[in-house]
Amino acid sequence: MYGTVQPGRRPPAADEAHALLVRLLRRAAEGGRLRVPVEQATRVIHAATTGATLALIGEESSERDLTTSTRLRDTVIASITTDAPASSGSDLASRALALDAALHTALTTGPPAAGAGVPLRDTETALLREWLQQLAG
């Protein structure tokens, strides 16, 4: 999937995997479970999984230690997620990320129904998203 990666070009399978990861991380952010913005979490997970995969592929099978992948997964998940949903605590950063993710979803899920949607102009939405990302740290 990543054997022919070039700047600005990804194989279709890599694009599909990326889109799926972003969707899953947006759901986690909407639930108040991310401690970093979706885009940053996506980059961290992508870098870790690609690196682990290439490292394991490059090892002799007799020396390959699959617990490396498990440890890396656990480390990455711990670094990007909160311990509990924001609704049960007062973690401003995860709440800001949750609102930013919900706002992004509202803006990108098609035409709003009558009376629904985001009642902000584009510039106001951009400013709100910037503030939310600053609050998220």
Model description:
With 137 residues, this protein is mostly helical. It is 62% helix and 0% strand. The chain contains five helices and no strands. It has helices spanning 12-30, 38-57, 67-80, 92-108, 122-136. α1 packs across α2, α1 (12-30) packs across α4 (92-108) and α4 runs antiparallel to α5. The longest helix is centred in the middle third of the chain and has 20 residues, at 38-57.
What is the secondary structure topology, with strand pairs?
Blueprint: H1 12-30, H2 38-57, H3 67-80, H4 92-108, H5 122-136
Proportion of helical residues? 55-70%
The total of helices stands at 5
β-sheet strand percentage: under 5%
**SSE pattern:** HHHHH
Question: How many beta-strand segments?
Answer: 0
| Outline | globular
Q: What distance separates the N and C termini?
A: 33 Å
Task: Name the structural class.
Answer: mainly alpha
Radius of gyration: 18 Å
Arithmetic mean pLDDT: 82
| Poorly predicted ranges | none
Largest sheet report = none
What would you say about this model in short?
This protein is mostly helical and about 140 residues long. Helices cover about 60% and strands about 0% of the residues.
What characteristics describe this protein?
137 residues; 0% strand
